[in-house]
Amino acid sequence: MEVAARKKSLVCLAADRNTMSGLFELIELVGPYVAALKTHVDLVEDWNKEIWEEFCDAANNADLLIFEDRKFADIGKISRNQMAGIYDIRSWADLVTSHLISGPDVVDGLQTGWSDVNRDGGVLLLAQMSSRGNLLTPEYTERVVSEGRKHAGVFGFIGNGSRPSEITDLRKMVGDEKMIWTPGVNLQTGDGEMGQRYGDPRSAIISGSDCIIVGSGIHQSENPIEAAKKYASASWNALLEREL
Ligand code: 5BU
What we know:
eight-stranded parallel beta barrel; TIM Barrel; alpha/beta; 17% strand; two-stranded antiparallel ribbon; globular
């Protein structure tokens, strides 16, 4: 929230580019207008450890938390080991996403992964999703929230940015102590590619989101800088509107 206030932006950039040069270019262009950076490390075709370290340094220099959207879902022991492995997510990610489908120990596994390298991090649990036909029912959402609220290692929840009413419901369940971050947000609302759905940035924040996760709305725009500025001001103004 400190970074968000400094940059006047509640935008997390979903940096879904599949080359390192594309990723570096994105940070350089829009770093000043976004508050966090979401990655899918396994999308990158020319990934190697050294260049990824440079990329994480560039993100840190741009004052960005790094959030690996890994959507962990295994038993605790395996999740802990999946934080290591070739990508060594535990060493550079500040936040990761996880399902709670396997039970609460997945969160302990992820937290142990960070402590194995003397780092701290936060887990965002998938309480809802933005894609059509997903199987996260309202009852499931409630179970995830009631488990997640109790857990110090859970930083917050993923909500469905495409449906403001679902965000309102989620905020009621979550209360004020944990965050809600929402993908499925675009200034052009409606159906996206392959089952993605989009809602409007202002509506997401007004309904209780703390951070809008925006991918193609920025990185596929003809002018990513102008697009990032638009999402930043829509989110920040909505926060001011909501809190007044
Ligand atoms: P888009 O280009 O703004 O549609 O990208 C959305 C990003 O958010 C993409 O990286 C997805 O993996 C991510 N996402 C999502 O779209 N919906 C979800 O429910 C979750 C993550 Br969880």
